[in-house]
Amino acid sequence: MNKLKLIFKENWVAILFSYGLFTMQSIFMLIYPKVLGVTMDKLIAKDYYFMYYLLLTFAGMMFFGYVGRIYDTRVFSKIYRNFASVETNKQYENDVDTTKINGRVNLMSSVISFFERDMFMIMNSIYGVLVSVYFISLVDITMVGYLVISAVLTLGVTYYYSPKIAKITMLNNDLSEEQTDVISSRKISLVNDFLHRGQKLKIKLSNLDAKFSLLIQIIAYGTVTSLITYYVISNNVTVGGAFSTYRYLFDFCIAIASVPSIIESFINIKDVINRLETEN
What we know:
mainly alpha, ABC transporter transmembrane region fold
């Protein structure tokens, strides 16, 4: 994974600034349920002053989201352009077959997507879990234990499915490298066979991903449903308190449910980098 380290080293200022914008947006997004919950209780009590805090939180969330989206597009598209140019030139110098180079150029974008997309998903999951656990612990520490159990079950399911996903990902990337060679043959029988193999892999990956995601969702949503039911029955709750507690449980659920996408993307990036570094 040296290429990821090199990309970060060459562009660390721009990348960290992007993550800084995302972190600011995340802070506003994560405190928003708490502020909204308190505001709801204040409004019920005919106290309207807290609306200013709600509007400020909403404005901050929108502002950093807007600026971050524009900045990220400009920065990461430039990083990809430079990375793809350098890597393609290395392929030329190593006398890699042209058909493989063409397939690898298409795969190179997934390497940059680690910084542009996957890191945001990882950060969002970490922020979501930590903040959710913190606010839930203030409400009822017992629920935190069940959230931890939910996370452990998620890791177990991930450990089981990761090797299966890795195998299909490698086969799918093999097809990407073959694409130009198959089309250049100008034989429709080879093209049809190529398309058929691609279809079979997509169906196989889709079935595997569906099972993986289903188990994660059962664990996450089952935990949230059970805990919010327990919280409402066992405590004297207000409308705003119940809302904010549910939202933080739901945020934890979303953070855990994103694990399959993160794992699949990481497996793909690892395979692409291995091809760029070791294959001729």
